Amino acid sequence: MASDIPDHHCPGCGTPQRIFERYPWYFCQDCLSLASDKAGTVLEFANSGIGGGLVWRYQGDKAWRDAIAVACRIKSRPVIVHEARFGGVVAEPLREEHFHASAGRVDLRN
Hints:
By secondary structure, this protein is mainly beta. It contains one helix and nine strands, in the order ββαβββββββ. It has one domain. The chain is globular and about 35 Å long.
């Protein structure tokens, strides 16, 4: 496999992305910045500290909320946003059978 040939394309916009075996079908950061709830309110995500952890908020809010994962939408598509291994935040297409709202899992899709 040649290194100049993209191995992955963002499922939201098609932009070539670096391949990560752990996240074979992740959204690019530009598409992640479009994540929204069911009403279209844009969401923001970050790590809660240097040691990781996921936090989220509605764009423009001051208060961050802790979560393990957030089900939301990118371009009307259901996605799951969670902490990436070794830090950062990653969004992937949501497989319904793998998401159950529970403590720390926030569902903003519906």
